[in-house]
Every structure is written in structure tokens, then in C-alpha cells.
Amino acid sequence: MITLGLILCAGVALDAVLGEPQRGHPLVAFGRLANALERRGNRAPAQSAARLYGLLCWCLAVLPLTFLAWLASQVPYLGWLWEILLLYAALGLHSLDEHVRPVAQALRQNDLPQARLRVGRLVSRDTRELDAAGVARAATESTLENGADAVFASLFWFAVAGAPGVVLHRLANTLDAMWGYRTPRFERFGWAAARLDDALNYIPARLTALTYVLLGRRPRLALHCWRRQAPLWDSPNAGPVMAAGAGALGVSLGGPAIYHGERHERPLLGDGLAPTARDIGRALRLVHKGVGLWLLIALAGSILHA
């Protein structure tokens, strides 16, 4: 048990120092596999059959690799090393920094076209017509939500189930990002990917929201926004995370956005002014402070257990 805190710290440290692999990232190869499965499996005409095909493709993509992660963690004397490497591959804290900070920098330099281009790499909404406040809002929302999906959920599932747990979550989350759209192509086929990702992120999302409440400058407002505004959001996990994060930062998020050519009227989250480039940096710092808190808890728990 004492190794849990140390492994978590080692994985976070590797991510901080090395960042994402520039070549041969395992998730890139997994994305090619997922695309191949989707091209072959997303052909069923009936709604029930399409959902079944989507579930079967999800199982084919995720379960064998999860089993391989378990085997790697069982290797005598080297299992701990494989666990660190798999946790490092799953974490996205350094990548989040690399993608979000240039958005804030472009806004500070009043380079709105570059800011729109940069934030378009973070979100699935149409960013071509966003003003500066819209760009800052999109970047802040992405920071808070990806902090939950790509950082805290990975730490949670590793703590719960080790290497297979973190691999299962990361692959499921990747498939949700690829298949979990409410479009004619994916609404039925991607149903299982979306629902399974919701299930796997249910507890981590609420722990992330609690982290934002505890570490934000306005904890009472953050808790109030979480309780009152999160149920209005269409995503059961993004709602608590972004509502609590918006309240913790004292900014307003949500509002109208264009996805796949359609305007969506999203509920308002938080309370305060529209975010700015400064608030993007504050959101990043909130995520980093949360990671530090989680690592301290893991280390303390390991020491007390020992």
C-alpha cells in the first residue's frame, strides 16, 4: 500500500517532465484501432442493433488492452515500473498546460484569430466567430472539465484498481470523445461509449467538484453553484465539475454555443463576470493545486496504512 502514493507521485512527475510522447503515443495507435472498428461496426440499420454493435466494438477495443495492462502489472519485480509508465501515459496534466496556456497568451496579446485557432483544438464547438470573452469561456470550461477527465479521474482509477483501472478509464474516455456525439452517425453506435464513460466518471467528477470547492477562493459560492446549477446541465458529470469550478473562480460559464452547425442554449454556470485570459490561468492553477492535494492525501494514507 505504501507504494500507491509513491507511484502516483512518480506518474505525475514523469508527466510534468516529459509531457506527451512526441512519437508513438499509445493513444494515437488506439485511435486508429477505434476508427477501424467504427468503420466496420457502425453499419447496423436498426437502433437496437446499432447500440449492440457499438457495445461490442467498445468491448473489442477496451477489454483486451485492459487485460494486458493487468498482466504487465503482475510482472515480477518490474510490475511497479509498468504501473508508473501506464499511469504516465494516461495522465494529461502537462498536455492540458500546453494546449491552454497559448490561448491565454494570445488573448493577452489581443491576437483574437490565434486565440480562436488555439481554443478550437481544445473544444468541439465552432470557435470561428467567438469574441475574446467567448474564447476565454471556452478555454476555462475545457480546463475545468479536462482536469476532471484527463487528470483527476486517472488518479482516482489508478488508486482504485491500479494499472488496469487507469487504462480502462483512459480508453473509455477516448472512445467517448470519438464516438459519444449526438449526431446521426454516432447517436446510436456511440450510445454505449457515452453511457460507460458517464458511469466511470461519476465518482471522479464529484470528487473533482469537491476539490474545486475546497481550493477555490469562494467555496460557499462554489458549493451553491454545484447544488443549484449542475442539475440543469445536460451532462451528469460535466455539470458538477464546471458549476463548482465556475463558482470557485467567481466567473460565469455556459451560455449559447454552436456545435456541429447547431446553436445550443446552455444554462449559465457560476456567478460573476465573463472570464478573461487571467481566469484561464486561475483555472489551470486550481487544477494543479488539486493534484497537489490528491498526492498529499495519497502519501499520507500510504504512510498511515504502513
UniProtKB/TrEMBL annotation:
GO biological process, one term: cobalamin biosynthetic process
Transmembrane segments: 52-71, 150-172, 286-304
InterPro entries: Cobalamin_biosynth_CobD/CbiB
Entry keyword set: Cell membrane, Cobalamin biosynthesis, Ligase, Membrane, Transmembrane, Transmembrane helix
Pfam families: CobD_Cbib (PF03186)
Superkingdom of the source species: Bacteria
Membrane topology designation: Multi-pass membrane protein
Compartments it resides in: Cell membrane
GO molecular function: ABC-type vitamin B12 transporter activity; ligase activity; threonine-phosphate decarboxylase activity
One CC-aspect GO term: plasma membrane
Pathway: Cofactor biosynthesis; adenosylcobalamin biosynthesis
Family listed: Belongs to the CobD/CbiB family.
Alphabetical list of HAMAP family matching this protein: CobD_CbiB
Its biological purpose: Converts cobyric acid to cobinamide by the addition of aminopropanol on the F carboxylic group.
Protein name: Cobalamin biosynthesis protein CobD
